[in-house]
Design a protein that fits this description.
Blueprint lengths: L4 E4 L2 E5 L10 E4 L2 H9 L6 H17 L6 H16 L6 H16 L5 H30 L6 E6 L14 H10 L3 E7 L6 H12 L4 E4 L4 H6 L5 E4 L3 E3 L4 E4 L2 H10 L4 E4 L5 E2 L16 H4 E2 L2 E2 L12 E4 L6 E4 L2 E3 L4 H7 L4
Parallel strand pairs: 4-5, 4-7, 5-6, 7-10, 8-11, 10-15
Antiparallel strand pairs: 1-2, 2-3, 8-9, 9-14, 12-13, 15-16
Length: 346
């Protein structure tokens, strides 16, 4: 597996996912603004991965705050945190990581600024390492849901590239493969940026897991033909009632799965849950530039002068989700009480 993000020479190196699968290039972040730009421009993407990047980015930005005064340091750090939160609105992991770093800074008001900087740098590395551990735990939790022989449909990319490593939805698929399960994966291409074809199919090929790419609109046909045993996706945010936001197109897959009596599973870390939101209608949905729809590889493919609507995510109501797979366990409906229990401090 390609490492998604790492510290090197006091800079942050992240694999530039816009260049995959044709080229493996590192995007080097020397400032917090570089990290914010990488998130906005999707050089790094995937809810857990941008959470890791946010934590690292703030640790990087803290190094540039040239003061020994705690009050001044805190003020500038909080400003950086607000800028980081605005990078992308839907995935809650970004906000979670920012608030985690801010909590550390505010809890060290009696310490030297240099010590604070080192502590948050260490914490950012711990977030990365813990994310990989969490993904492996999600994989093991989800194993019981995968039959001994299974054809799995997945959407977008919820693999190592979307996380610190290993993956959430692909973490379950990887764990099943490692356990000797006979699996084949159908991969939605995932328009408009083709994260399924470019990234998920690439990861599966690297791991020698049998995979076939399909156009997004072929999923219903395959379900009706009984060629799909289960669907599994990741999630960018999960509300307190179990509604979830994921890459645009996830909702229609969930509806189709229910119509065809196929389980629809969602694999996500607890950092993707947002108890502040009563339901999915309150999740902010990012709308991206219409050029992403009308162009391909930088070339206009649609007619000039025609508008395009480009929501990056949609909401899947809890009623269509068969189970939520987390690092602490698998939840089944009704979700509200189970989510609340899992999110209690250990």
């Amino acid at each position: 597996m390609i490492p998604t993000i790492k510290w090197e020479d006091n800079y942050i190196y992240l694999i530039d996912q816009r260049k995959l699968p044709s080229r493996k290039e590192w995007f080097v972040c020397r400032t917090v603004q570089d990290v914010i730009a990488a998130i906005r421009e999707m050089a790094i993407r995937g809810a857990p991965a941008i959470g890791v990047a946010a934590g690292m980015g703030l640790a990087l930005g803290a190094q540039s705050i040239d003061t020994e005064n705690y009050g001044i340091f805190r003020k500038r750090f909080l400003e950086m945190g607000e800028q980081m939160k605005s990078a992308r609105p839907t995935a809650v992991n970004l906000k979670w990581a920012v608030e985690r770093m801010i909590k550390i800074v505010e809890g060290m008001h009696d310490d030297q600024v240099e010590e604070i900087k080192q502590t948050i740098r260490n914490e950012s590395q711990m977030i990365l390492e813990r994310d990989i551990e969490i993904n492996r735990e999600i994989g093991q939790r989800g194993l019981a849901l995968v039959p001994d022989t299974a054809t799995i449909l997945t959407h977008c990319n919820a693999g190592a590239l979307a996380t610190g490593g290993y993956g959430t939805a692909l973490g379950v698929i990887r764990a099943a493969s490692e356990a000797g399960t006979d699996i084949h994966v159908f991969v939605d291409e995932t328009r408009p940026l083709l994260q399924g074809m470019r990234l998920t199919a690439f990861e599966l090929r690297e791991d020698n897991i049998p995979a076939t790419v399909i156009v997004d609109s072929a999923a219903g046909y395959l379900m009706r033909k009984k060629r799909i045993d289960l669907v599994i996706t990741g999630a960018d945010r999960i509300a307190s009632n179990g509604d979830m936001a994921n890459k645009i197109g996830s909702y229609q897959l969930a509806v189709l799965a229910k119509e065809n009596n196929i389980p629809f599973y969602v694999a996500a870390p607890l950092s993707s849950f947002d108890l502040d939101l009563e339901n999915g209608d309150l999740i902010p949905i990012e709308e991206r530039e219409p050029e992403e729809v009308m162009s391909f590889a930088g070339h206009l493919v649609g007619p000039e002068g025609v508008n395009a609507y480009n929501p990056a995510f949609d909401i899947t109501p809890a009623q269509y989700i068969s189970a939520l797979i987390t690092e602490k366990g698998v939840l089944t409906p009704p979700y509200r009480s189970g989510i609340k229990d899992l999110l209690k401090d250990p």
